[in-house]
Amino acid sequence: MPTAVAHKARVKEGRNVFDAAVDRISEQMEQGHRLVVSFSAGKDSTVALECALMAARRTGYGVVDVVLRDEEILFPGTYEFAERTAQRPEVNFHWLVARQPILNLYNRAMPFFWVMDPLLQPSEWVREPPPGFIDIPEMNIEAMTIPSRFPPPPGRDLIAVIGLRTQESRQRLYGLFSSGGALTNVNRWGTRSLRPVYDWSDGDVWRAISEFGWDYTPAYDVMHRLGIPRSQLRIAPPTMNVAGVGLLQMAAKAWPRWFDRVAERLPGIRAGARFGRRALQPQRRLGETWEQVFWRECAGPKTPKWIKERAVTVATRLVKTHSRHATTPFPEVEPCRTCMGNAGSWKAVALHMYGGDAFSTFGGHMLAYVEPSFFRPGGGSWNGGSPG
Fold first, then answer.
1. Is 238 part of a structural domain of the chain?
2. Among residues 170, 186, 205, which one ends one of the domains?
3. Residues 6 or more apart from 123 whose CB is under 8 A from it?
């Protein structure tokens, strides 16, 4: 395996990434902290869990706590894999159901669906959680692992072990730099996070799974056979971002019965599988400027009110910011990077705000997350945390 990389100057440490990951976890176990592995049943959390189990055997730590937050809708075979993991004797598995909203970008009028929606009959859900699940009131993802649920020993920390890898995005890399290493500071809920596999590549993940014979969800094999590139093999609800369109179209072919059930549960899904990205983007008419597209599609009379309000807020602030340092109009296509990097153009604003940006991935500091209770009275709150 490749050599592990130190976080600050990205200097090679002289050990491979697998040994480095196990060492990072072992160090915290030896210090007496309580570690809880955040498990999504995806490949990254799978290797993080296996490294944690190896570290536990090395240090005599004992049974490892594992926590999963049920998302209801993942590709077939994924939750079956999670149930196999829960049966392992070296694992103390906590299957949480938060009934939190998840984005459905294919429905602009109602962009959320609630996991195991209490307003529906269980027969209307895509699947039910297994026996022994734990209902929790907290909807933000950081509340999976909190001291009230996993009390650490006196004078020791509660540490959430997460399968974050910096290869996935530059933002994750910057986050690692800002926190000073694999271990973060204590968050507002009293928990630290450990990212033992942050320097692993996709190849490292699959090599470890292959060489050690680790179990994993068979959904990855199906995706691979249907031509999904290794870098795009992801296990997550396919309705949360534009990047999931290709996986959704693949899923309609791979698991038609599952797809039919999901389409019944989530309005707009069939259009996404049929039209791809065009189902999630404004359509530019002949002769239109991107500014005109924005005002028609993102702030026009047929635009849902919540999208219009958020879109106008972002556009107004960006144009105002641009006017402070430039005498030229706000750009049509080529972004003004002084404004907001790649976001500084009418085209970018139109494309990103067409769906309302409920989780503020584009609007950033200009927009707050849309609270669940906005769309459903009593629907809950993120309580200052991240939706996930």
1. no
2. 205
3. none
Q: Which two tokens stand for residue 258?
A: 């599952």
Rounded distance between C-alpha atoms, residue 97 and residue 344, angstroms: 39
Number of domains present in the structure of the chain: 2
CATH classification of the domain holding 195: 3.40.50
How would you write the pLDDT of the chain (388 residues) with one tens digit per residue? 665 554 444 445 557 899 999 999 999 999 999 999 999 999 999 999 999 999 999 999 999 999 999 999 999 999 999 999 999 999 999 999 999 999 998 999 999 999 999 999 999 999 999 999 999 999 988 889 999 999 999 999 999 999 988 865 555 554 554 555 789 999 999 999 999 999 999 999 999 999 999 999 999 999 999 988 888 888 888 888 777 788 889 999 999 999 999 999 998 999 888 888 888 899 999 999 999 999 999 999 999 999 999 999 999 999 988 888 888 899 998 888 776 666 789 999 999 999 999 888 876 778 888 888 888 888 888 877 778 7
Residue 108 near residue 81, CB atoms below 8 Å: no
- Answer whether 0.85 is exceeded by the pTM: yes
- By the 8 A CB rule, do 261 and 247 touch? no
Q: The domain containing residue 22 runs over which residues?
A: 3-205
Residues 49 and 175 in one domain: yes
